[in-house]
Amino acid sequence: MAGSGRLLSVIFSTSTDMRFFIKLLLVLGVLCGAGYFGWQKASAWLKQRNKPSFRTASIETGAIRVTRNATGEVRPVLSVQVGSFVSGPIEDLFVDFNDEVKKDQILATIDPRIYKAAVAADKAALSNRRAEVSRVKAQLQLAINDENRAIKLRDQNRDFISQTEMDQYHFSRMQLEAQLSVADASVKQAQANLENSEANLGYTKIRSPVDGVIIDRKIDPGQTLAAQFEAPELFIISPDMKKKMHIFASIDEADMGMIRRAKDESAAVMFKVDAYPDELFETGIIEQIRLSSTTTQNVVTYPVVIATPNPDMKLLPGMTAELTFLIDERKDVLKVPAAALRYMPENKEHVHKDDHEKLDLSFSLEDDNSGLEDKPIDEVTEESSKTSRRHVWVQDGEKLRAVEVVVGVSDYRFHELISGDLKEGDLVVTGLKPKK
After folding, report:
1. CA separation (Å) from 382 to 240, 257, 387?
2. CATH number of the domain at 68-77+241-329, out of 1.20.1070.10, 2.40.30.170, 3.40.640.10, 2.30.30.240?
3. Contact 217/237 with Cβ under 8 angstroms?
4. Longest dimension (CA), the chain
5. What is the C-alpha separation between 88 and 115, in angstroms, rounded?
6. What is d(CA 276, CA 319) in angstroms, rounded to the nearest whole number?
7. Is the domain defined by 80-111+204-239 classed in CATH 2.40.50.100?
């Protein structure tokens, strides 16, 4: 009995250990399976999380406008400065700011009393010189008569009059003829003095030289003018401001080629003024490109004159205008976003291995550009002419592929797509999305 009990005890203990071992194997199997499937899911999640996400934009069809912006000042086409030639106090003032005036209209008068007195004095002097001419003419005629009588008597008998007396008659006549010439010159001088005094008297009436509008008045009644040293400025008159106004803009030398092309093609110039922020003026044209350059801090600019009608007198002298020059316009062309042309992958792992050499070439070109200023200008010009041939990047599965394109004109957002294996609606990469 004792032996049977020990045997049963051993069998029971062995059965218990086997069950525990089986349970342990089952737990380990479950843990290993869970770990395996968890690792797969975790690997897939990490792979998806680390996968690059690209920003894209589509190829569009539309219009591209090449423009250049500038700021200008509104000015009248002509500003006539009206001054005074004579001095004196202002006696009357007949016009004010913004008045419309006609040619030869009297704008103001200067006290004319001293100029009237000068005219009267010169008239008296002229009368005196004319009387002197009459007196000398009478004496000359008397001398001529005396000489003629003496000649007749001498012809009858040479002893009646001596040669000395004949010389006295002859040279007396010549002397009076000279005096008559002097008297005639004195009359002309007196006449000129009178005309000068009458002109000065006329200058006391300030007249408008043109039809126009008074845009500035710089005198007041009673003000004294001193014109001895410099002609004082009294009024500024601008003619035909309703017909045309000018806008003066300073254009950088780098843009002058495009501005000249716009002028040759009579391209429109759009502008706005602060007085009418919701109104767009589209009536400007480039009238003149002036050669008088200005250099400010090594920046060279040229004045460009834009002409525009002003029927409603909305444009006033001195206004600031914001201008847009339309250089070129292409309609119904394929457009590639400018951001796509600027984008360059930074990680070769994102690029298909067949395009690694294009990526290396792009990086090497960027490095070469650092010394561009040391290259001969003919090489720089040749390289600049090749900048129309570029690359954009498109997604091919999880990698990027380079597509060579040739681009044309550009605005600030798009480039014209001249050639390339792209069509409307295709997506091109413009950058990387930030990871969340």
Report:
1. 50, 18, 9
2. 2.40.30.170
3. no
4. 221
5. 10
6. 11
7. yes
β-strand pairing of 399-410 with 414-420: antiparallel
Domain limits, the chain: 54-64+334-432, 68-77+241-329, 80-111+204-239, 112-203
pLDDT in tens, 286-327: 999 999 999 999 999 999 999 999 999 999 999 999 999 999
Q: Letter for the amino acid at 421?
A: D
For 229: left if phi > 0, alpha if psi spans -120 to 50, otherwise beta; the answer is alpha
| Residue ranges of the chain with per-residue pLDDT less than 70 | 1-21, 23-27, 29-51, 229, 360-388, 435-436
- Record the pTM: 0.68
CA distances from 104 to 28, 96, 206, 212 (A): 117, 16, 9, 11
